[in-house]
Design a protein that fits this description.
The protein is α/β, with parallel strands linked by helices and about 375 residues long. Helices cover about 30% and strands about 25% of the residues. The protein has ten helices and 17 strands. The structure holds pyridoxal-5'-phosphate. Pyridoxal-5'-phosphate binds next to loops.
Length: about 375
């Protein structure tokens, strides 16, 4: 891995590019805002680390009051767990025999819980845990309308809860359901309506599990776009929100009050004609998952295409003054799929570099 050569207090305009740039004050403000919401609402916060994959940010979220961290993969959980995070939920299925062994081993470092949505997966985890004299906490993943993972019916959910309760080496810790199909809906009324329908499925499932005598100590749900809808349900005990910490323009467009803390800093490397600038970052350095990135703070500069290592800007108005060597900040359409393109995130405050943090779980996809 190439370690960036930097001096703290370097002006942002002098950092060599392209780099992933994070505004520390805006990050802190986002983290505090969500923490404050959770506190006043009386719901726990377990931020999803898939957004930033950065143990430094995860620890900042814990310091602000989060009870633990959510992860997407066993490898992500290992990195967070070995970095001292004590309470982790893998909001995903861990299926491979080798990965299940790692899940059992990770119990020696932290309290790690995992989602299951099939009896077969529960049996496999039970076998591995029991053989090693360990107990793995599992939560049932219920599909609440996204039609990705998760049990599809209440009966199926109760059957799985029954199996988990009977299997040795497992402890049933509760339930999760992710309302991902609703998080970007606009206007807010549409989001509210669709999210409410989803969370009502989760609440109904929780009630049925309780009635049948199963533990629902954890009921985890929530995306950034719906945090203040989902968080308002009594049935939901914790929020597994991710993007709020750093944000992106797609989420910003839904009218959320979190700040755009993340950008990609690039340099103009060519001004081949009056209305064109070429920058030194392309699709290997910024996602186009939900659309092209947007130029921050320069009137009349628009990204019109990305190739591997080049970005092409069309210029008008103030942007016509851009010159070779000038810095340009891009706001990605999606923070989560931009973070994982970088080994390091450059953290700045009031225009000066404050630190360079490793994106420790970059590439932790396995
Ligand atoms: C299972 C799960 N939980 C929570 C989230 C919340 O993410 P965000 O807050 O970025 O919308 C996601 C996003 O992909 C997810 O897949």
């Amino acid at each position: 891995m190439i370690v960036p050569v930097v001096n703290a207090s370097t002006p942002v305009s002098e950092i060599e590019t392209p780099v992933l740039l994070l505004d520390a004050a805006l990050l802190e403000s986002n983290i505090n805002k969500m923490a404050e919401y959770a506190r006043t609402q009386g719901v726990f916060l377990r931020p999803h680390a898939k957004t930033h994959k950065c143990t430094v940010i995860a620890h900042a979220q814990l310091r602000a009051g989060a009870i633990g961290i959510t992860c997407a993969k066993i490898s992500e959980a290992e990195i967070m767990g070995y970095a001292g995070i004590k309470d982790i939920l893998i909001a995903n299925q861990v299926v491979d025999p080798g990965k299940i062994e790692r899940l059992v081993s990770l119990q020696n470092y932290c309290d790690v819980k995992v989602a299951v949505d099939s009896i077969k997966n529960a049996e496999d985890i039970s076998l591995a845990a029991h053989r090693r004299g360990q107990v793995v906490k599992v939560i049932i993943e219920r599909d609440i309308g996204m039609k990705r993972c998760g049990t599809r019916t209440l009966d199926e959910t109760l059957r799985l809860a029954g199996a988990v309760s009977r299997l040795p080496g497992l402890e049933l810790a509760g339930l999760m359901g992710y309302e991902g199909h609703t998080v970007f809906l606009t206007p807010r009324e549409t989001r509210l309506e669709n999210c409410s329908q989803a969370i009502e499925i989760l609440a109904e499932t929780r009630d049925a599990m309780e009635k049948a005598g199963f533990s629902t100590e954890i009921v985890s749900s929530g995306g950034t776009g719906t945090y203040d809808i989902t968080g308002g349900y009594k049935a939901v005990t914790e929020l597994q929100v991710g993007s709020y910490a750093t944000m992106d323009w797609r989420y910003r467009e839904t009218g959320l009050g979190f700040d755009l803390a993340l950008s990609v800093l690039a340099t103009v490397i060519s001004r081949p004609d009056r209305q064109t600038a070429v920058i030194d970052v392309g699709m290997k350095g910024v996602t186009s998952e939900f659309g092209l990135p947007v130029v921050k703070g320069i009137e009349g500069a628009e990204v019109v295409s990305l190739s591997e290592e080049h970005g092409k800007l069309e210029l008008s108005a103030d942007a016509l003054n851009l010159a070779v060597g000038d810095r340009v900040e891009l706001i990605p359409s999606h923070g989560c799929t931009t973070f994982n393109l970088y080994n390091w995130v450059h953290v700045c405050r009031e225009g000066l570099l404050e630190g360079v943090w490793p994106v420790a779980a970059r590439g932790a996809l396995y």
